[in-house]
């Protein structure tokens, strides 16, 4: 923190309990938005900064319409008090919107607790959102913006802190941060966030996935309390499908860095599925498979035991025939239910 010259210390705001901190950068007033989130402005906290209003033809939310630009000093930081050891979500948003009339969207560095988080590359008219979930290592969280190139002034539009339940994302080693690449509500028409998602995770609608048909569940009640990572009901209510059951759905998640670890969970439990299991041996990134409480028949396929990353396999309450293949029974790291 030695190089951190200006600190906004919101000592009176802390993210404990269910409290949340939402900063509308460049704004001066405090207000409550349509999702019941309370936003505070950051006027008067930084000397070497200016607030600005975007001049975009795109309609943007109230939060994105103002920004704070740092006009001097190489590095500027927002510091928030937090509970050490708690799991938090931090979301930083950047919308250039040609606020300076130069049509020159800048690039700069984003730092989390003094470590490199990302290089922010802004565009003329598209908001950029950077999000991380991690276990706080001290009693503060610091988010810094650092200028790296002449005339490319760092700016920020919004900064949000949310406390998460420490039981979610338990599969992830608490010493690692979880950077969000995408979070999609397939088949949904609108963005889902607070209050539908109690943690205010933002789920982007994935409706227009080429060739896919959006479908809605007619279930009266989807009980999400037992599902891991607490997905909001609104997200599970919609889906995408294909007009023919023999067709596949291909999703292409993009990962920035080669060698990223991936945790993939296939949960098709309690869906009244029948017949034999198809060959999905190419889905070798799967870590958990839950097919319990269906009416699946036929032999338990051999390939399940050969999925390189599989740790949890739940086939309980089905009508499989035959023996458990040796690939599964002799697989020491695989837990079969
Ligand atoms: C907004 O629209 C005007 C007129 O159509 C255009 O000249 C201008 O470049 C647009 N601004 C941005 C930021 O796209
Ligand atoms: C989404 O929008 C389409 C078209 O406007 C509508 O037919 C459909 O019912 C909507 N779905 C949901 C889940 O709101
Ligand atoms: C869906 O995406 C295609 C191209 O990807 C586009 O041409 C079409 O207009 C989109 N439809 C809707 C309803 O957004
Ligand atoms: C949801 O499931 C949990 C655990 O099985 C149960 O305790 C709870 O009562 C259920 N909630 C509703 C609304 O059915
Ligand atoms: C799969 O989803 C059901 C709820 O539909 C949940 O009870 C179960 O814990 C989930 N399994 C896994 C491995 O996440
Ligand atoms: C169904 O899936 C196939 C690929 O398996 C795709 O080519 C086709 O466009 C899809 N059709 C519909 C109507 O979703
Ligand atoms: C099993 O799945 C059916 C739907 O297929 C559901 O109605 C039932 O509640 C599920 N049973 C358990 C124990 O989850």
TrEMBL record:
InterPro entries: Leu-rich_rpt (IPR001611), LRR_dom_sf (IPR032675), Malectin-like_Carb-bd_dom (IPR024788)
GO CC entries: membrane
Subcellular location: Membrane
Residues of the Malectin-like domain: 23-267
Primary location: membrane
Topology of this chain in the membrane: Single-pass membrane protein
Leader peptide range in chain numbering: 1-19
Recorded superkingdom: Eukaryota
Keyword field: Membrane, Signal, Transmembrane, Transmembrane helix
PANTHER family membership: CARBOHYDRATE-BINDING PROTEIN OF THE ER PROTEIN, OS07G0107800 PROTEIN-RELATED
Protein's name in the database: Malectin-like domain-containing protein
């Amino acid at each position: 923190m030695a190089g951190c010259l200006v600190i906004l210390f919101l000592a009176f705001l802390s993210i404990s309990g269910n409290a949340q901190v939402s900063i509308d950068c460049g704004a001066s007033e405090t207000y409550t938005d349509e999702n019941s989130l309370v936003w505070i402005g950051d006027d008067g906290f930084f000397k070497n900064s200016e607030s600005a209003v975007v001049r975009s033809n795109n309609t943007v939310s109230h939060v994105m319409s103002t920004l704070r630009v740092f006009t001097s000093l190489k590095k500027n930081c927002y510091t928030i008090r937090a509970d050490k050891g708690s799991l938090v979500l931090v979301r930083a948003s950047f919308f250039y919107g040609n606020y300076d009339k130069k049509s020159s969207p800048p690039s700069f560095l984003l730092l989390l607790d003094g470590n490199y988080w990302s290089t922010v590359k802004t565009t003329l008219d598209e908001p950029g959102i950077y999000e991380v979930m991690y276990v706080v290592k001290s009693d503060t969280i610091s988010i810094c913006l650092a200028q790296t190139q002449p005339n490319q002034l760092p700016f920020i539009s919004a900064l949000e802190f949310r406390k998460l339940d420490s039981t979610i994302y338990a599969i992830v080693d608490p010493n690692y941060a979880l950077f969000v690449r995408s979070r999609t509500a397939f088949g949904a028409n609108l963005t889902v966030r607070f209050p539908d998602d109690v943690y205010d995770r933002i789920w982007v609608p994935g409706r227009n996935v080429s060739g896919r048909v959006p479908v809605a569940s007619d279930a009266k009640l989807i009980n999400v309390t037992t599902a891991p990572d607490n997905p909001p009901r609104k997200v599970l209510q919609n889906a995408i499908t294909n007009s023919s059951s023999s067709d596949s759905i291909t999703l292409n998640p993009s990962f920035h860095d080669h060698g990223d670890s991936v945790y993939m969970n296939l949960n098709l439990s309690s869906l009244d599925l029948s017949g034999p299991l198809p060959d999905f041996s190419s889905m070798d990134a799967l870590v958990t498979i839950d097919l319990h409480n269906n009416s699946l028949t036929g032999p338990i396929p051999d390939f399940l035991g050969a999925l390189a990353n599989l740790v949890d396999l739940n086939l309980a309450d089905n009508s499989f025939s035959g023996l458990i293949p040796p690939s599964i029974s002799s697989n020491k790291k695989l837990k079969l239910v």
